[in-house]
Design the sequence.
């Protein structure tokens, strides 16, 4: 009988031969080399955080009118126009003959912005006066917001002196 050492030697020898045979077999095999590894894709630039959309609240009107009718609103609008044009208002009674007289309708929205104007009686002989009155009306924005009516169309008569000064019929001091 073989001793334990001999058996052990036989197993080691067989194992080595088996390992050598497998290694020889594998060495005879050819493999296709793998293509070189592609570099990793570049990391995308960090996307900035989206800018939040801020919706500004609509500012409350600076001037407010409590008028219930267009006729009442006309007084607030006339005072507003006088306040914006203090140096252009004719003081005292106007002379009997005026350079121009015009009747203008003005549409005002809920924020006091002029949305339209229309001539009911245009001083067509003085187109420069018509243009100046329309410009004066628009530059006086914002008007007192007609909070009780939501929006309003009011009418006023413009009394125009040849000097370029004016009065509104609503606040006129009369004529001589």
Sequence:
């Amino acid at each position: 009988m073989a001793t334990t050492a001999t058996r052990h030697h036989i197993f080691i020898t067989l194992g080595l031969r088996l390992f050598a045979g497998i290694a020889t077999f594998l060495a005879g095999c050819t493999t296709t080399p793998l293509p070189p590894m592609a570099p990793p894709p570049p990391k995308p630039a960090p996307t900035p955080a989206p800018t939040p959309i801020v919706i500004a609240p609509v500012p409350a009107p600076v001037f407010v009118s409590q008028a219930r009718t267009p006729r009442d609103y006309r007084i607030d609008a006339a005072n507003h126009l006088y306040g914006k044009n203090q140096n252009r208002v004719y003081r005292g009674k106007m002379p009997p003959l005026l350079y121009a007289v015009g009747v203008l309708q003005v549409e005002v929205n809920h924020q006091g912005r002029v949305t339209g104007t229309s001539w009911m009686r245009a001083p067509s002989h003085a187109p420069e006066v018509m243009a100046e009155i329309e410009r004066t009306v628009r530059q006086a924005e914002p008007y007192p917001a007609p909070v009780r009516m939501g929006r309003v169309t009011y009418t006023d008569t413009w009394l125009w002196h040849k000097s370029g000064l004016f009065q509104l019929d609503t606040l006129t001091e009369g004529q001589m």
